[in-house]
């Protein structure tokens, strides 16, 4: 669909939605659209994400103060403050001086503030909007600063290390937040009940997943969309909860919404899972867009990324793509890895037929996806190494993955004609999309230092 929006002269922006796709380069967006187009039988790219229908778009460079390739802490700090810093630093400049974030600035002006993500609420990108530490791994200190931020709403998986890693004397971060006036809601059902109460019943809210949700044991992430079970907390649900919560308590609000697990999937070079995460963020964006339709003269939506992850390439041989084969992947590389690990734990030395069955059930190999004799020979050789205990797991940014599972995902990506250059970040340009009053300022080429000043310009003009 094509949106045609006129500039609103002297508009007063009262609501800002700031979407950040962690690891989402332009190719991640294009892959998501081309994949869905392919499986729906549409011309390639005709099935669009909401963001690419926005009337204004641009690109930005993402390097940090010290590195040609940024990490999420430096990039998040820049997207929150407009200032570049060293990799690993949050809310501080290269000399460790505290920076003021746009969320803190608007909070001081009386705006309601919501920070939400599909990963931990003390992870680098969300933390960049409220924390000021020289090391992004200081999760306990970051969690303490979350409680003292006085922001109105947080939503996500929970805290990485709510008790601290090894110090039982430290106060649990959830209890610390409650003492700072936050109500903790475990799952969207609890949050919805709170919304039915008068605003005074819950002035500040932290919405986290239920303890039986995927990933809840360590609070590091919500379920991947491809792995989601009924009842699992979603980013769209978090946004749907945050909007009425903030609207009931403030005349203006600012929300940072992170699709954090695009990055996780791309660190694992897992195209099908990454595509699912792009569309999952799109669902959350649809919630914000419905609000925009009700308040078009007062709502600004900006979508960007902190960096690209994986060096995703659409094309690895000839002039064709076969993204439709990715629909045969039934789970993330994480879950597939766990299945292979469990198989070898249960059977010690499982048969090749049992290994083939896992590939067949989860990736469609030999049935929906043709496997050549040479490709089967390579998989079988790896299987023989695994039987001897010589096939080592691969450690990427967030998880060690079983060699057999990783090989299967890599082969499916190859069949789709997708390539990757790295398991880490790249220096690829990041996309920017915008709609709303004064959104034209986001068009063109920028550096990531420009984005916060542009938001302020759109809000203040």
What does this structure look like?
The chain has helices spanning 26-39, 72-81, 102-108, 124-127, 139-148, 173-179, 188-195, 235-247, 261-267, 271-294, 333-347, 352-363, 373-387, 403-415, 451-460; strands at residues 15-23, 56-61, 112-117, 153-156, 182-186, 204-208, 253-259, 299-309, 313-314, 394-395, 400-401, 418-419, 425-426, 430-435, 444-447. The chain has 2 domains: 15-314 and 423-460, Alkaline Phosphatase, subunit A; 323-416, no CATH class. 37% of the residues lie in helices and 16% in strands. The model is unreliable at 1-9 and 213-218 (pLDDT under 50). Strands 1, 2, 3, 4, 5, 6, 7, 8, 13, 14 and 15 form an 11-stranded mixed β-sheet that branches. The chain has 461 residues and is of the alpha/beta class. α5 (139-148) packs parallel to α6, α8 (235-247) packs parallel to α10 and α9 (261-267) runs antiparallel to α10 (271-294).
| Record field, number of beta strands | 15
Instruction: Indicate the CATH class of the largest domain.
Output: Alpha Beta
CATH fold name of the largest domain: Alkaline Phosphatase, subunit A
Q: In terms of structural class, how would the helical and strand content be classed?
A: alpha/beta
Give the low-pLDDT segments: 1-9, 213-218
Approximately how much helix is present in the residues? 25-40%
Q: Give a short account of the largest sheet.
A: 11 strands, mixed
Tally of distinct domains:
2
CATH architectural designation of the largest domain:
3-Layer(aba) Sandwich
What overall form do the CA principal axes indicate?
globular
How much of the sequence is in beta strands?
Answer: 15-25%
Give the helices and strands as they follow along the chain: EHEHHEHHEHEHEHEHHEEHHHEEHEEEEH
Compute the average pLDDT.
92
Instruction: Please identify the oligomeric state.
Output: single chain
Distance between the termini: 29 Å
Q: Please report the number of helical segments.
A: 15
- Using the CA coordinates, give the radius of gyration: 22 Å
CATH superfamily heading of the largest domain: Alkaline Phosphatase, subunit A
């Amino acid at each position: 669909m094509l949106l045609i929006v006129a500039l609103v002269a002297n508009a007063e922006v009262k609501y800002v939605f700031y979407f950040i796709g962690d690891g989402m380069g332009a190719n991640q967006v294009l892959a998501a659209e081309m994949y869905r187009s392919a499986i729906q039988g549409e011309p390639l790219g005709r099935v669009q994400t909401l963001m690419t229908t926005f009337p204004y778009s641009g690109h930005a460079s993402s390097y940090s103060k010290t590195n040609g390739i940024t990490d999420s802490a430096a990039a998040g700090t820049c997207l929150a403050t407009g200032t570049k810093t060293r990799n690993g630093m949050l809310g501080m400049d290269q000399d460790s001086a505290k920076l003021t974030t746009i969320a803190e600035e608007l909070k001081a002006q009386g705006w309601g503030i919501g920070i939400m993500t599909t990963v931990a609420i003390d992870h680098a990108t969300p933390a960049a909007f409220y924390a000021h530490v020289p090391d992004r791994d200081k999760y306990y200190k970051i969690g303490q600063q979350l409680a003292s931020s006085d922001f109105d709403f947080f939503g996500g998986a929970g805290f990485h290390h709510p008790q601290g890693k090894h110090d039982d004397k430290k106060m649990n971060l959830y209890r610390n937040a409650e003492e700072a006036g936050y109500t903790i809601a475990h799952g969207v059902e609890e949050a919805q009940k709170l919304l039915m109460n008068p605003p005074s019943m819950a002035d500040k809210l932290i919405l986290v997943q239920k303890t039986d949700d995927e990933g809840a044991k360590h609070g590091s992430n919500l379920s991947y969309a491809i792995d989601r079970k009924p009842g699992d907390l979603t980013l769209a649900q978090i946004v749907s909860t945050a909007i009425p919560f903030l609207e009931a308590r403030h005349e203006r609000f600012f929300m940072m919404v992170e699709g954090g697990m695009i990055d996780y999937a791309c660190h694992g070079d897992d195209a099908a899972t990454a595509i699912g995460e792009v569309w999952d963020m799109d669902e959350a964006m649809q919630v914000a867009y419905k609000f925009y339709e009700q308040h078009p003269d007062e709502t600004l939506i900006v979508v960007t990324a902190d960096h690209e992850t994986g060096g995703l390439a659409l094309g690895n041989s000839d002039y064709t793509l076969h993204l439709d084969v990715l629909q045969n992947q039934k789970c993330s590389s994480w879950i597939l890895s766990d299945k292979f690990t469990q198989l070898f734990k249960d059977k010690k030395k499982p048969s090749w037929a049992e290994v083939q069955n896992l590939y067949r059930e989860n990736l469609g190999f030999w049935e929906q996806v043709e496997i050549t004799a040479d490709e089967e020979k390579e998989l079988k050789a790896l299987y023989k190494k695994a039987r001897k205990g010589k096939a080592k797991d691969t450690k990427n940014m967030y998880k060690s993955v079983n060699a057999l599972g990783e090989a299967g995902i890599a082969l499916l990506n190859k069949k789709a004609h997708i390539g990757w250059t790295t398991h880490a970040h790249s220096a690829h340009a990041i996309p920017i999309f915008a709609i709303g009053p004064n959104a034209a300022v986001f068009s063109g080429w920028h550096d990531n230092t420009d984005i916060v000043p542009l938001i302020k310009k759109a809000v203040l003009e």
